[in-house]
Amino acid sequence: MPWPDWQAVEHASWVVTIVALIAGLIQVFLVLRELRKRAKIQMGLIMPDAVRKPENLSTQRTIAAPWSPMGAWQSEQIKIPFGIANSGDRSAENLYHELIFPSTIFSVGAAEGEGEVSRDGLGQAHIVWGPDQLHPRSGLTHYVFLHVPQDTTDASVVSKAVFKDSTLLETTLKLDFQARTARRWGR
């Protein structure tokens, strides 16, 4: 005895096929839209009075370097904020940020527990921050501590970034140092 509602089953299978096709097309559209999204990494120097936004990062900054009045061979320690930010619409997964200081800057370091400091064969100082210290969406401000050697008026710092599915991004940041003598009050 044949099943009396076989046409209803056939109609239902067509409905399921059409719904699955539409759902598949929607999925393909969503995947293609996600693939068009890009992370937009910006690197630079944080300006003291500017709002901390990616578009406010600068490639040049003048920094006052305090000097002891006793004639030291390098300045007192100064703190310089460097920034990296993602203003794109996709996360920058596995983000690494590296700053390369010229060999003329002898004493350079990162905040304790942040960044790995090393020197290459040319004497350049490298500070690298990895994914465990960087947020893939918003980025971070890095504080670098250094002493300016005597007769050094400027330095070019190379800033590099790389993340999953990207090419190496690189920019040169210019630091101008302005000598400032530390005053002793009451003398």
Notes on the structure:
The chain is 17% helix and 37% strand. By secondary structure, it is of the alpha+beta class. The longest helix has 31 residues, at 6-36. It starts with 5 loop residues before the first helix and ends in a 6-residue tail after the last strand. The mean pLDDT is 84.
Question: What are the SSEs and their pairings?
Answer:
Layout: H1 6-36, E1 41-45, E2 60-67, E3 78-86, E4 96-101, E5 108-110, E6 116-119, E7 125-129, E8 140-146, E9 154-162, E10 169-181
Parallel strand pairs: 2-10
Antiparallel strand pairs: 1-3, 3-8, 4-7, 4-9, 5-8, 6-7, 9-10
Series of H and E elements: HEEEEEEEEEE
Q: Structural class, please? A: alpha+beta
Q: Estimate the helix proportion, in percent.
A: 10-25%
Rg for CA atoms: 27 Å
Q: Unreliable segments (pLDDT under 50, ≥5 consecutive)?
A: none
Ends apart, CA distance between termini: 115 Å
Total of DSSP H or I helical runs spanning 4+ residues:
1
The general outline is rod-shaped
- The strand line-up of the biggest sheet is 2-10-9-4-7-6
Main sheet characteristics: 6 strands, mixed
How big a fraction of the residues is strand?
Answer: 35-45%
User: What is the residue-mean pLDDT, rounded to a whole number?
Assistant: 84
DSSP strand tally: 10
Short account of what is shown:
The protein is of the alpha+beta class and 187 residues long. Helices cover 17% and strands 37% of the residues. The longest helix has 31 residues, at 6-36.
Q: Which structural traits does this protein have?
A:
1 helix; rod-shaped; 4-stranded antiparallel beta sheet; 17% helix; alpha+beta; 6-stranded mixed beta sheet; single chain; 187 residues
